[in-house]
Design a protein that fits this description.
heterodimer; A: 140 residues; mainly beta; OB fold (Dihydrolipoamide Acetyltransferase, E2P); 2 domains; five-stranded antiparallel β-sheet; three-stranded antiparallel β-sheet; 4% helix; B: 384 residues; alpha+beta; Peroxisomal Thiolase, Chain A, domain 1; ten-stranded mixed β-sheet; two-stranded antiparallel ribbon; 12 helices; 13 strands; 32% helix; globular
């Protein structure tokens, strides 16, 4: 549970829904999979784009991927982030589902497209006391 | 469509730095609309339709305040961002072409001094919807989301930082000839561009639009009505707004990512117009940030992505000698950021021969709105 985010501990958390809960709480790269046609879609949607089903299950995938794109953010868009800049945002293409692109932070600013990364989870506590395991990324 | 609707008036409020407007956003809207209606030679009571995008100033309030006629059409487009500029024109065109209304105002008013700043993000404890997948990671503003798209686009096609600079240099160069422009009297050099601080890589300060206060408007009516008005009509030769199949997925999961969302719009526009990019001598490209402009130039079909560095290089986007002069009033970067509606007004002025960077004899003039936020939109104006 290494924290790689440069953002403050009390920065925004995802609001949990039945559709995104597995992604943000399971501690796995749990991509939404359609029970009817097995298509993987991300971010989770309320209906399967391929077959129209509304029933899903989490599909745990290998927590590995490559950097598809990135930006190093230098300007703090909120004063609460003033001591966090510069921070690195990556888009990660999953090894087992390359069409799925996942947003995360990466420790440090040494980043290139195509660089392999592995997932790590940042443990946070939501206002209602639930534990959120926020997927983040680090070098292997 | 295809010549049924024409633009007969344009107008704007004074443009200000963010927080510099003595008027409220609603007052700015009223000023721009009054100017456009007066420019058309119409009475306010002739106006029977109002369209916009992402605007807070509701048509019923505007119509009561300004003394418009009986309203027959009000509409606003869905979707985020400046993509709505061209889309709003399609709503006006649709209303006129279908006969729902006869004189429609399309406008946008935006006072970032009075309301929230686009370059800032509020602090929330719980991010919902698509933002749940981005805000916790500090992906909060259009600069950051378009940076992620632009980084990948540059990587895939070998697009240089200097090509990003060309967009900013064109806007600033053109703003030096436009007294309305906020950057009038403040030229930009290539060295100053590269020396400016990073906002979100690959965007320097000068890759980013400013935050401004102002409003812009046009009046759209029928070709028949236009024959009795004071201004030469400017035809809406074709307009399109939409998104390619699969490219509405959130959090960077568009099928064709990175995309400016203009491939489908471009194909549709050129097919409707019966012309091609090479026929167009001048264009306005909504530049929230420079990278999306380059993506939109290729997706609209002006060149292949691999040809961009050559197409835009050495002042390729600058009036009067560039291959394709863009943002000839200074655009969002140099004139003012009115969420891209200033670009629509300028595209009309090019056909009227009134631009401060006038392309001689321009008979077609393109306005491409809001790259990177779906749906995209574009309007091709022409001589009426």
């Amino acid at each position: 549970m290494t924290a790689v985010s440069a953002l403050p501990d009390d920065w925004a958390l995802p609001g949990l829904t039945p559709f995104n809960e597995a992604w943000f709480t399971s501690g796995a790269i749990a991509v939404q999979r359609c029970i009817s046609c097995a298509v993987l879609q991300h971010p989770p949607e309320e209906i399967c784009r391929a077959c129209g089903s509304m029933r899903f299950e989490p599909a745990p995938l290998a927590p590995t991927g490559t950097v598809y794109s990135f930006t190093v953010v230098h300007y703090a868009a909120n004063p609460a982030l003033a001591s966090s800049v510069p921070y690195t945002v990556v888009l990660v293409s999953l090894d087992e589902a390359p069409h799925v692109r996942v947003v995360g932070n990466l420790d440090g600013h040494d980043v290139t497209i195509g660089m392999p990364v592995v997932a790590t989870w940042e443990e946070r506590t939501a206002d209602d006391g639930r534990t959120i395991l926020l997927p983040q990324w680090r070098r292997p | 469509m295809k010549g049924a609707a024409v633009v007969v008036g344009v107008g704007e409020s004074p443009y200000y730095e963010r927080g510099g407007a003595p008027e409220t956003e609603f007052q700015l809207a009223c000023i721009a609309i009054r100017h456009a209606v007066a420019d058309a030679g119409l009475a306010m009571s002739d106006i029977d339709g109002v369209v916009s995008y992402m605007d807070r100033n509701e048509p019923v309030r505007l119509s009561a305040a300004l003394g418009m006629g009986d309203l027959n059409w009000t509409a606003q487009t869905f979707g985020g961002g400046g993509n709505g500029a061209g889309a709003a024109v399609t709503l006006a065109d649709a209303a006129i072409s279908a006969g729902y209304a006869e004189c429609v105002v399309a406008f946008r008013s935006l006072a970032q001094g009075q309301f929230a700043r686009y370059g800032q993000a509020g602090r929330v404890r719980r991010s919902t919807g698509a933002a749940a997948f981005t805000a916790p990671y500090g992906v909060l503003t259009p600069a950051q989301t378009t940076a992620l798209q632009t980084t990948r686009f540059m990587h895939e096609h070998g697009v240089s930082q200097d090509s990003l600079a060309e967009v900013a240099l064109a806007s600033y160069a053109h703003a030096q000839r436009n007294p309305r422009a906020i950057r009038y009297g403040n030229p930009l050099t290539r060295a100053a561009y590269h020396a400016s601080r990073w906002i979100a890589e690959p965007f320097h300060l000068y890759d980013c639009c400013p935050e401004n206060d102002g409003a812009a408007a046009i009046v759209v009516t029928t070709a028949a009505r236009a024959r009795h008005l004071r201004r030469p009509p400017v035809a809406i030769v074709a307009a399109a707004h939409g998104v390619e199949r699969g490219d509405g997925a959130a959090a960077f999961n568009d099928v064709h990512f990175p995309t400016a969302h203009h491939r489908h719009v471009g194909r549709t526009l050129w097919a409707r117009a019966g012309v091609e990019p090479a026929d167009v001598p001048v264009a306005q490209f909504y530049e929230n940030f420079t990278g999306p402009v380059l993506m939109a130039i290729t997706e609209m079909g002006f060149c292949a992505p691999e040809e961009l560095n050559e197409f835009v290089g050495d002042g390729g986007l600058q009036w009067p000698h560039g291959r394709l002069p863009i943002n000839t009033a200074g655009g969002n970067l140099g004139e003012a950021y009115i969420h891209g509606f200033g670009n629509v007004v300028e595209a009309v002025r090019q056909i009227r021969g009134e631009s401060t960077c006038q392309v001689d004899g321009a008979e077609l003039s393109l306005s491409v709105s809001g790259p990177n936020y779906a749906p995209g939109s574009a309007v091709l104006f022409g001589t009426g």
